[in-house]
Amino acid sequence: MTLQQSQRPIEPDDLHLGSFSSQQPWSISSNKLLWLPQVTQLRQAQARSLPGLTKPPKLPPLRRAITVIRTLGLSVGVWAVKERGTDRSRAGISRRIRVSAERLGPTYIKLAQIISAGEGVFPRELVDECRKCRDQVPAVPYSTVVEVLEAEFGRPLQEVFQSIDPTPLAAASIAQVHRAVLVSGEEVAVKVQRPGINDLVRKDLKVLAWLAPLLVGRIPVSALANPPALVDLFAETIIEELDFRIEASNMLDIARVFSELDQRGFVVPRPHPTLVTKRVLVMEFMGGFNFDDAKGMKEAGLDTEAILKTAMLGFLEGAFLHGVFHGDLHGGNLFVQPDGRLALIDFGITGRLSESDRLAFLRMMMSTTTNSVSGQVSALRDLGALPADTDIDEVVRELGIDKGPVDPTKMEPEEMVAELQRLIKALLSYGARLPKPLMLYIKNLIFLDGAIASLAPELDMFAVVTEIATHFATNHGATITSQLGMANAEWKLDLDGAKAAFGVDPADMDRLTYSELQERRTLIRKRLAKHHLS
């Protein structure tokens, strides 16, 4: 063996199982994952517990209920005295709800973050306020972290870690993350659940389930999601974050999906084979450029536009083709490595689609690219956004979405407000709601939309739609059309329909950069701000 051969890096033996790093700290394939066999039962137990968590109790946990009612009641009371009935009404109640969420702590901060994904479902004022809701919360003292680690591992800290940084890398609602080195020398990230958070979340869900029916119709922020439905959605989302064994399993599933798609532009950290418990998750450490650090990436010679397109395609392919996707994309969960690969972290919230839901997502994509309005509404119904017995043709007629596109920037403010009020009223009358998979999907799209502003502001939106549709048709066309019972020839991109989705008259524009799109959005918001939506 030559010296050159002996220095050749050893290829990780688990890349066929997932899109993992080439710097292999341990093998997923050659080690028994001690925590994995329990995950199926854990998921089933969580699903069984949901109805009990969201059923309104006769009496909520009293001490917590008093705290919540006092905090929210004071905010609503001040709003009612100072702002109700004025042109500041919605902005005022939205700001006060956001501040109350921050005061009430982790559960309510998470709830605000769910609401922040509801653009078009909740009033814009409430969505904008909830986007401000801080993700960082005060860190748990290091001494408490040590207590949790030793309790979960059943041994002294020094038997597991060579060193651990007392200052967390991040401290969020459910957990905080510390950088550490194992006694065996591997550099890791250690996710530690906040003590008592499980009990607190369950108490808060009981309070919310009791309170939600009392709020129906009482505050002007429900839009398309009534409070009880929001509690159901929230419970389904947050409960899966409370067991890190489930999160570790999510990591493996998403890594596998990327591998099967041959999408090596993403890298997922390996969870440790033995150091994963309900409250602690030890994983391979991942770092890199923050996802919004366009300046740093460009200075390092990275193609930010290509990175953005990788993020879009990886998310869409996972959802449409495998029914599994990271459900909480944001700047703190994505790092860009020096080689341009995207490192994904924090898999507590993961989108998982049943086969019927996945096919409905596929139909939604197909209908959007071919400009089939009835197909889009039908797919939304099948996803649960509309009742199962909804008459699709009637919805299309009443909403008027079968007519030619109307450019909102050419509408008078009064016309714009009247049209929005009409659409909201019609959707409410049909019982529209936001099911969890669709909420996570929209939440990720909103994040990716915002990422364009920093990574590729001059990106041609029409060209991106064409490129993504072409990628799906070229690489997955036969699979998709077969699953939907279509002929390949039936799938043709209707770019005019894509333009209409951006609120543009197809005859007016051949190109629309993201910067131009933002200018149009700003103009629309200014016009709406002058005419309050009551």
Number of helices: 20
- Helix content estimate: 40-55%
Characterize the main sheet: 6 strands, antiparallel
C-alpha Rg, in Å? 24 Å
Strand content: 5-15%
Amino-to-carboxy terminus distance: 79 Å
Q: What is the residue-averaged pLDDT?
A: 86
> What is the number of beta strands?
12
Q: What is the general shape? A: globular
What topology emerges from the helices and strands here?
Elements: H1 3-6, H2 39-54, H3 62-82, H4 89-104, H5 106-115, H6 124-131, H7 142-153, E1 161-164, E2 170-171, E3 175-182, E4 187-193, H8 197-215, H9 227-238, H10 244-260, E5 266-267, E6 271-276, E7 280-284, E8 289-290, H11 294-299, H12 304-322, E9 324-326, E10 334-336, E11 342-344, E12 350-352, H13 355-370, H14 373-382, H15 392-399, H16 413-429, H17 436-455, H18 461-483, H19 495-501, H20 514-529
Parallel strand pairs: 5-11
Antiparallel strand pairs: 1-3, 2-3, 3-4, 4-7, 6-7, 8-10, 9-12, 10-11
Helix pairs in contact: 2-9, 3-4, 4-5, 4-6, 5-6, 8-9, 12-13, 12-17, 12-18, 13-14, 14-15
Which features does this protein show?
single chain, alpha+beta, six-stranded antiparallel β-sheet, four-stranded mixed β-sheet, disordered N terminus
Summarize the structure.
Helix content is 52%, strand content 9%.
Any overview of this molecule?
With 534 residues, the protein is of the alpha+beta class. Among the domains are: 42-135 and 198-240, no CATH class; 355-529, no CATH class. The chain contains 20 helices and twelve strands. It has helices at residues 3-6, 39-54, 62-82, 89-104, 106-115, 124-131, 142-153, 197-215, 227-238, 244-260, 294-299, 304-322, 355-370, 373-382, 392-399, 413-429, 436-455, 461-483, 495-501, 514-529; strands at residues 161-164, 170-171, 175-182, 187-193, 266-267, 271-276, 280-284, 289-290, 324-326, 334-336, 342-344, 350-352. Strands 1, 2, 3, 4, 6 and 7 form a six-stranded antiparallel beta sheet that branches. It has a four-stranded mixed beta sheet with strand order 5-11-10-8. Helix 3 packs antiparallel against helix 4 and helix 5 (106-115) packs across helix 6. The longest helix is centred in the C-terminal third of the chain and has 23 residues, at 461-483. It is globular. Mean pLDDT is 86; it is low at 1-6.
